[in-house]
Amino acid sequence: MPGSGTDSTKPWIVGGPAVILVEPQLGENIGSAARAMGNFGLSRLRIVNPREGWPNEKARVFSAGADRILDGAELFPDLRAALAGTRYAFAATARERGMAKPVLGADAAAADTLARLSAGEDVALVFGRERTGLYTEEVSLCDAILTLPVNPAFASLNLATCVAVTGYEWSKAASAGALPFAPPDRSPLADKADLFAFFDHLEGALEEAGFFRSAEKQPSTTRNIRNIFHRLGLTKQDLATLHGAVAALVEGREGREARKAENNARAAEKAVERRARRERGD
C-alpha cells in the first residue's frame, strides 16, 4: 500500500555507479546513506572497514526500508580493494588537495558518470570518514575530485547528506530530469457564455444581499469583481463549484434544513405509497 512516498507496487531502480564509504564511523550514517541511495536509484554499496563492524543493526534501522541495499553491500579491507575492477573513480572532498586532477561539481560528475557507464566503464563515487573525510593518499587513488559549492567557512557535510546530494544529481542525469508525476489534467476552460452566466448568478445574489450599498459605485465594483475571476482562468468545473457555493450561501442553513425536511417528507410519502400498493397486491 503506497504511503509516505513509498510504493512497493513500483519497480525498484537498480544500477548506477558504485558508492564506496571509506571507514564510516556510525551505523546510523551508513543506513542513512543507503536510504539516500535508494531514493535516487543507486543500489551498489561498498563499505571499507566500518568502525562498528558489519552487519550493523543501527544501519538497518536508519535505512528506513532500504534493506536490499544493505543486504547487497560488499565489505572491503581498504579502498584499493574496493576499487578493484573500477575504471574511473570520483573522490568526494571539500578540501583542495593540490593534485592535478579534474574538479567537478555533482551535476557535472553525474553527467560524466552517465556517459562512462553508457560506454561500459564501471564508475565509483568515493566518500570518506565523518570526522576527517578521505585521506590524501586515498584521493590519489581516484581519477577526479567531486566537490560541492558549500559555505567555505562551514564545508563539512554529513556523510549521508553528501551521498544524497550526489545521488540527486545522478538521478536527474539518468532520468533526463523527468519528474515522477505531473499535475492532473484540468477541466476545460470555461467559455464566455458560462462565465457570464456565473457573473449574473453572483451579481444577482449580491444585489439581493444588499452588497451594493452605493448605486454610483455599483458599476465599478461589479467590474472589479469580474476582473478577479477573469484573472483566474476558471475551468468549467471551477464554475460549477462556484455556482454551488453561491447557491448555498443564498439558501443559508435554514433553507437547507427546510429542503432536507421536505425531501425526507417526500421520501416518507413514497414509502407509504409503496407499502400500500404491496398490501393491495398492486
Automatic annotation (TrEMBL):
GO biological process: tRNA nucleoside ribose methylation
InterPro entries: Alpha/beta_knot_MTases (IPR029028), RNA_MeTrfase_TrmJ/LasT (IPR004384), SpoU_MeTrfase (IPR001537), tRNA_m1G_MTases_N (IPR029026)
Keyword S-adenosyl-L-methionine in annotation: yes
Keywords: Methyltransferase, S-adenosyl-L-methionine, Transferase
Segments forming domain tRNA/rRNA methyltransferase SpoU type: 18-168
Region (Disordered) location: 253-282
Pfam families in the cross-refs: SpoU_methylase
GO MF terms, alphabetically ordered: RNA binding; RNA methyltransferase activity
GO cellular component, one term: cytosol
Family affiliation: Belongs to the class IV-like SAM-binding methyltransferase superfamily. RNA methyltransferase TrmH family.
Name by which UniProt lists this protein: RNA methyltransferase
